[in-house]
Amino acid sequence: MSDDRFDCVIVGAGCAGSVAAYQLASAGMAVLVVERGPFAGAKNMTGGRIYTHSLEKVFPNFRDEAPLQRRITREKISLVAPDSMFTVDFTADGLREGAAESYSVLRGPFDQWLAERAETAGAEFIYGIAVDDLIIRDGKVCGIIADGDEVEARVTILADGANSQLVQKAGLAQGRPQPHQMAVGLKETLELPASVIEDRFSLNPGEGAAWMFAGDCTKGRFGGGFLYTNNDSISFGLVAGIQSAMEGNVPVYQMFEDFKRRLDIAPLIKDATLVEYSGHMVPEGGFAMIPGLYGDGVLVAGDAAMLCMNLGYSVRGMDFAITSGELAAATVAAAVEADDESASRLASYKAQLEDCYVLQDLKRFAKFPHYMESNTRIFNEYPVMVGEMMMNLFAVDGSPERPLKQKMTEPLKRVGLMQLARDAMGGVKAL
Ligand SMILES: Cc1cc2nc3c(=O)[nH]c(=O)nc-3n(C[C@H](O)[C@H](O)[C@H](O)COP(=O)(O)OP(=O)(O)OC[C@H]3O[C@@H](n4cnc5c(N)ncnc54)[C@H](O)[C@@H]3O)c2cc1C
Questions:
Q1: Which GO terms describe its molecular function (predicted)?
Q2: CB within 8 A of 289, min separation 6: which ones?
Q3: Which fold has domain 6-69+105-177+287-364?
Q4: Does the C-beta of 19 come closer than 6 Å to ligand 1?
């Protein structure tokens, strides 16, 4: 360092912050990470599955080094009606090998591993202190203010997660996110012996399941349930749209309690020991809510930049956070090298995000959040319709059998064929 400034100060030791710190420290930059939690991962939460393509780019040996749980080889999606549950259950050899690799993870050990990697590379970490404000001179972010102390930096990376106050202070966001753009997630980590998990979820040793639920788990409102199998625990929880939950009369914790008591769910978690309970915000608004990603002396990465995507069958945020952290670090390193931390220099960060899957995926599915939020039939009428179809198909009660076509179309007519066609078309357009 040529003066008493850090080359980079990073706010937050989540996936985005620690990966950026690792990359910068590895490039010989002086970097400081300030994390409000007592250790990395203390305040972080995820449903539990990381798609590892981005991790592999930064840590090619992650399979041997990272505290991963189970490789996901079983994908399940359920439509949940009040009195039935219809499940798609998919396994494939392709999920056991190849590029489409994903693992269940627990954020405590995973984030500590990432932070340790950055520390070993030379990054400094301070824990237990929240960054309250930014040092801004002539419109340029020149560092952070934490616990009354000022720390100067050439570039500051805001990686402070979904509820970032600092993005606004940097002048990169117009107001707070709206309730319809945010969801609240809650999760229990439930311990069970590995052999019980493998028996209950039909898994080979070391293999894992990811299970998404839509419908009555959120009382027919915008949101869904999730379940991931870890080595010897299950990550089980709900995500509920904040606007939608506010309009209903059942609090989110009660939705989850009712869900766990269902006859088709209770056996999955029977005799499990609750070892962790957590809650967290999830940015669900997609492309429309991405703030400014760069300014004079500042970049925004991960959830702070709202880089998160929930498509119902997949939830992604950690891979976006890792790639954005990596690209933010590359941008800072080039700016410091060129002795130019201006917004026009840092603009290449956005261009790099546009050139890769991060902004391309978010842009491609830009209409999806609005489609899901405005089409509540997905969460109430359709699970009931499918449940009735299956009931008509499977129930044999001695009365004369009706033609299969009639059995299937009756529930369909209740929703309305035109309505179904319109919703299907809307879904196709949004996806
Ligand atoms: C219920 C739920 C389920 C999810 N499921 C999945 C999933 O299965 N797969 C997936 O890929 N993604 C999932 N996500 C999204 C994923 O967890 C996030 O996208 C990811 O954690 C973003 O990483 P990040 O580093 O940007 O932010 P975070 O992991 O939130 O880290 C931000 C860090 O900043 C710190 N911080 C905040 N403010 C300050 C401050 N002022 N000063 C100092 N430190 C501060 C925090 O303590 C935290 O350590 C889920 C999220 C939730 C809530």
A1: oxidoreductase activity
A2: 177, 181, 283, 306
A3: FAD/NAD(P)-binding domain (3.50.50)
A4: no
